[in-house]
Amino acid sequence: MSDPERELRVSKIRDGTVIDHITGGQALNVLAILGIDGDEGVGVSIGMNVPSDKLGTKDVVKVEDRELSQGEVDVLSLLAPEATVNIVREFEVVDKKRVERPARVVGLLTCPNHNCITNADEPVESAFGVVDDGVRCEFCGEIVREDIGDHLAVH
Ligand code: CTP
Ligand code: ZN
């Protein structure tokens, strides 16, 4: 058990989404998935590498007045398979879901293969199948195993 006196505490939020049990070090990629860079003026709190009983260390991201789309949750599951998404209303957690690995991810990642049709100036949306060891481009077969967060499509 972690000592409550020594826990890093990030304030509770009134309304919004708490993404908890994020793989340590992935918080900034999670913000990138959500398209948040701070310019939007929404309240965002981040805990990085905070102690966790379950994971050793974890990251936590709290975003006020915002809920996540299914596509965002799908990509999140690839970076942070243990994450929980908590919806908070009037300070209470009203919904808590574990993320689930999707079968495929459309439009949210870019292919690292520069010769891939999805990187040509064509109206083709990226699509990746989720495989055991990463994600596989449906157009060229390129597999991204590590650092999926480096291949997020910009919003
Ligand atoms: N939380 C928050 N603001 C609130 C309510 C909850 O920021 N008004 C955060 C908590 O700090 C925690 C997460 O939302 O990081 C989930 O809250 P809760 O379900 O109360 O915590 P636990 O029971 O510890 O969650 P779990 O069982 O998923 O570990
Ligand atoms: Zn490709």
From TrEMBL:
The keyword Repressor is assigned to this record: no
GO BP term, pick one: pyrimidine nucleotide biosynthetic process
Binding of Zn(2+), residues: C111, C116, C137, C140
SUPFAM superfamilies the record matches: Aspartate carbamoyltransferase, Regulatory-chain, C-terminal domain (SSF57825), Aspartate carbamoyltransferase, Regulatory-chain, N-terminal domain (SSF54893)
Metal-binding recorded as keyword: yes
Cofactor remark: Binds 1 zinc ion per subunit.
A GO MF term: metal ion binding
Aspartate carbamoyltransferase regulatory subunit N-terminal domain boundaries: 8-100
Keywords: Metal-binding, Pyrimidine biosynthesis, Transferase, Zinc
One Pfam family named in its UniProt record: PyrI_C
Boundaries of every Aspartate carbamoyltransferase regulatory subunit C-terminal domain copy: 104-147
Cofactor or coenzyme needed: Zn(2+)
Job of this protein: Involved in allosteric regulation of aspartate carbamoyltransferase.
Subunit structure comment from the entry: Contains catalytic and regulatory chains.
NCBIfam families registered for this protein in UniProt: ATCase_reg
Family according to the record: Belongs to the PyrI family.
PANTHER family found in the cross-reference section: ASPARTATE CARBAMOYLTRANSFERASE REGULATORY CHAIN
Protein name: Aspartate carbamoyltransferase regulatory chain
Species this protein is from: Halobaculum lipolyticum
Gene of this entry: pyrI
